[in-house]
Amino acid sequence: MRRIDNLANGLLRSAIIIAALGFVGCSTLPPEPEPPPPTETVAQDSKIVIAPPLPAPTPKAAARIYPPPPLPSLAIVLTSGLSAYADVATELMRRFENHNVYDLSDDGSVPVNTLRLVNDSDSGVVVAIGLRAAVSSVAMSDKPVVFSQVFNYQNLLTENSRGVSSIAPLDAQIAAWKEMNPSISRIGAIVGEGHEDLIAEAELAAERHGVELLAHVTHSDQETLYIFKRMIRDIDGFWLFPDNRVLSRRALQQIMESAEHQRVPVLVPSESLLSMGASISVSSVASDIAETITKVIRQIESGNIADIPPITPLSEIRVTTSQTIRVVDR
Amino acid sequence: MNAVVADAISRVVRIFRRSPAKAGTRVLINEILSIQVLSAALIGVLAVASLYWGGQWVLQDNYGRWALQWTEELNELGSPLFLTDDGEALLRLESFVNRYPEIDRVAYFGKDGRAIFSVGNGDQPETIADLSRTSLRKAIGVVGDKEPYLISTGILNPQRFEILAPVWKESIPVDGLFDFDPDASQQPEKTELLGFVSINLDFVIFHDRLLANMKGAVLILLALLGIFALYGRHLLQKALAAISNLQRPIRELAKGNLDVQFEPAEHREIAEIVEALETTATALGERDAELLQMANHDSLTGLFNRRRFLEELREEISTIVQSDRESALFFVDLDQFKYINDACGHPAGDRLIRKVADELLRSVRREDTVARFGGDEFAILVRRTDLEGARVTADKILANMRRMAHIEDERVFHVHCSIGVAMIAGDDLHQDELINQADIACREAKLAGRNRMHVFKQSADAEQQVATGLGWMNRLRKALNNDEFELRFQPINRIDTGDTTHHEVLIRLRNDDGKLILPDVFLPSAVRFGLMSEIDFWMILNAAKAYAHEAQTNPKLKLAINLSANAFESEDLADYIESIFEKHNVPPENIVFEITESLAVRRPRHVERQIAVIRNLGCTFALDDFGTGYSSFSYLQKLHFDYIKIDGAFVKDLPNNPVDQKMIRLIAEIGREAGMKIVAEYVQNAETLELLGELGVDLAQGFFVGRPIKRPKRKSTPISLRSRRNKRAKR
Q1: Backbone phi, then psi, for B705, in 5-degree steps?
Q2: Mean of the pLDDT values across residues A77-87?
Q3: Angle CA(B278)–CA(B283)–CA(B286) in degrees, nearest 5?
Q4: Other Cβ atoms closer than 10 A to B342
Q5: Which residues, in sequence order, are CB contacts of A85 under 8 Å at separation 6+?
């Protein structure tokens, strides 16, 4: 009987979600130049929309079109087998014929030995996925390194290394959130030290969408909580950045509880956080990350590594909502 | 040590032991009110105490909650201070502390327990002591706990808290929160101890407020108690008014006012009490009237008795002394009354006495007082009359008496009387003297031929007679006051064995010349002057004393004590006997009371009741002087006596008088049938004794058996009938 009730509730909630999404127009974001990829449903009460890639910058002059240079042999160093890392690696393997994959979490794997192998290999570029792989690669690789899925990259940028953003493009995140909840006007964000560029970019993105951003830098989960409890009275949305240094499980729980209590919607970078009470998740897409990495590698291969921005932003986002946001919207 | 403990216990016991309150000092309303007020006060105190402890508990609980909340906030606030040189954080901290005056001081310590800085409200010490190693160890031990703090409070100062909490930071180990699983609570987090925060909290301000509120509550409670007490007293007085209204009539009743009126009560319980009191008052009134009647009146005629007449006479004398007027005292003695009594029996005599009483009452005025002095003697107080008026009244009485005819058994009797008159005049009067004068005058009238009056006149002879009468009275009074009477004990023996069964107690008066005076000489004067009752009581007391003394060596001693009719005039006779016997350990079963035949046969109600009470004590009774002519044999069956004492008149000439012999035989047979023992008095010789034995008499008393002696014989010297016969034969 209980199982039947749960099933009925699930169906009802799904119906409401689909109806609400249709109502707010999520499914139409952004305009569709071609049929959108099939929608993924990760949970009965949530819906995922993958936005199409941003339009490519128009070339200034249509010169001769040269075939793209062949892609180099690739060494992929994985921090672990987490799906967030493995999915990117899989996408890369599809794009690069010559590749070698090294997983630092394998039994008996020692980063020094692994990087020695990488250096000894014929790989032209090292792609480090995850912080540990990135740190080891940047520190020990004698080949260009492109790291991804690293949020706290502050010490990873060298002449020989570049990164791909680990989070979805900020402008698109706010656009998606604003579309779903047009009344949002003042949002708060807390992040640890070393993310001044991120804060600046976020403030610009918010400003573009007519939203005021109150950003604070904290140093511990306690401080994060303290700041959050004080700012929550002044904001109508909270943007959670995935800075694990200033977040703890307890802090996350209290943030979510306080936000739910105050009816303040929270935008999170991971779908898994929806179950804690967040209202919307805007995350990156593995294929987009792989594509961006490919672009960066091409630029490195072309010898213009100095012209490559330290962190190359992504272009696609994956939006997942929960029933909570509908409740808030009502 | 034990003595000290025992002394302490006894002191406590003395404190709690309730000493009996003095009668009449307690007030019911106040006690009920006190109980109510005390109960209310107790409840109030308990309520205030509960309020205090409840409030204290709530405050303590809140203190704890606030303390922990503030600790958490200070923990959050303080963590940046360990990580950065953040001036803003310090400002935030100071602002936070200043917002709460209850926070006395907040101090932060490094990981090694070294004091970093402190901030607080009010005066703060310049330096802060570092954490002790113990505190440090304990504080480190609670890192990561669910309740990560150490809280301490003083027993005497529970509103002061000191909290020591570690400050640490936690972080999720996975960079970027990739694949962060909120449900995987087992995932370890990175923990880094930053330092410690110590918070001193003082909630005394709330405690003071609580106390102030409590004081207010207590004052209100006291005021309510006061109002309650006043109003309760009013209500109680109203409710108990019915009982209060009983106070006055009960007090009046206690004073003897039996005419008191009780207010009707509304309450059923009180109404029942009122009804019971009214019934009691009525019963008391009836009993009072009965007692008064018995105390003041002669039971046969209803006239005043001697005692009451003497009161009337005393009052009259006092009036005469003050008002200078005259009255007269008559002493009336019936002529030949004994003849009618002997001829027609005692009931006939009683009927005649009643008739005479009526006649006397008819012969005097309403204001005059007629009394029966006893036997055939009457006294009349003729008020407001001179000698001539007294003569007229006396003549009227004599005339009426002459006209009066008394018919008994178809025989007509004319009863005359002799009247002695004493005039009550002047200012040197005494009732005893007046009675004596009237008595002398009455005797003069009798001497002059009866059926006449005689007025007392002062003369040398008369004075002598008065002096003699008054002399006896004074002599007897003196003898009573100074214990100048003496007791003698005359044995009463069994005729068949000669054993002494008991002794009759006899009274003697020692004359100034040392000779003993027999009772025949002084008892008539004692009767006339109303001293007989006192002599009876003296006899009882001294016989009991003698018994107590003699019983030590003679435990089988049994005594017979004479009681006159006057003794029964006192309602206390039975109680007196019981108390005297109890005091001197006299077994009542060893005492025989002898009463005269005349008293026994008349048996007025009060005499009968007292005899029953004395008999219930265990005493036995003997009918004295039986056969002197007052009663018939049929009475013997009705009277419940243990002994019959045949009058000496039948005994003294027994051997020569066959009528007496037959009479004694008859008495003995009837007595035996009735279960009584027969005693013969006045046994003067062996022949009489032998004859009495043959006639069936059980016991004998007389000079031949034994003379009155100072102390009862311890052992009888039995002389059997046979040996006595032999004695007589030898003689």
Answers
A1: -80, -40
A2: 91
A3: 125
A4: 14
A5: A78, A79, A129, A130, A133, A149, B178
Q: Higher confidence at residue A104 or residue B202?
A: A104
What are the residues whose beta carbons fall under 8 Å from the beta carbon of B482, sequence distance 6 or more? none
Range with the poorest average pLDDT among B50-59, B74-83, B132-141, B547-556 = B74-83
Residue type present at position B655 = P
Global ipTM: 0.75
Smallest Cβ–Cβ distance between A250 and the set B170, B174, B180 belongs to B170
* Chain A residues lying within 8 Å of B180, measured CB to CB: 242, 270, 272-273
Q: Which of B89, B87, B90, B79 is nearest to B194 (CA)?
A: B79
The pLDDT confidence band at residue A54, using thresholds 50, 70 and 90, is very low
**Which residue among B79, B173, B176 places its CB closest to the CB of A223?**
B79
With beta carbons under 8 A apart, name residues in chain A contacting B90: none
Q: Are B718 and B687 in contact (CB under 8 A)?
A: no
pLDDT for position B385: 93
CA distance A318 to chain B (A): 14
Residue B621 pairs in a beta bridge with B593
Q: What is the pLDDT of residue B591?
A: 95
What tokens were used for A61? 């002059």
Residue of chain A nearest B168, judged by CA positions: A222
DSSP states of A217-232 as a string? Answer: E-SSHHHHHHHHHHHT
What is the mean predicted confidence (pLDDT) over B205-212? Answer: 79
Q: Residue B283: phi, psi to the nearest 5? A: -65, -40
Contacts of residue B711, Cβ cutoff 8 Å, sequence gap at least 6: B489, B546, B550
Separation between Cα atoms, residue B590 and residue B501, nearest integer Å: 10
Best mutation target among A190, A224, A226 (most B Cβ atoms within 10 Å) is A226
3-state helix, strand, coil in chain B (%, to 5): 55, 20, 30
- Widest pairwise Cα distance in chain A: 69
Count of residues in chain A: 330
- Quote the pLDDT of residue A234: 93
H-only helix segments in chain A: 2-24, 83-95, 111-120, 131-140, 170-180, 196-208, 221-231, 249-262, 286-301, 323-329
Instruction: Quote the CA–CA distance of B604 and B571 in Å, as a whole number.
Output: 13
Structure tokens belonging to residue B519: 């009772």
**β-strand B190-202 against B160-171: which pairing, if any?**
antiparallel
pLDDT for A47 equals: 46
DSSP SS3 for B93 = helix
Q: Residue B131: what residue type?
A: L
pLDDT-based confidence at B95, cuts 50/70/90? Answer: confident
Of B79, B172, B175, the CB nearest to A249: B172
Q: Is A83 on the interface with B (CB under 8 A)?
A: yes
Closest-CA residue to B680 (of B694, B696, B699, B655): B699
Residue with tokens 């599809």: A94
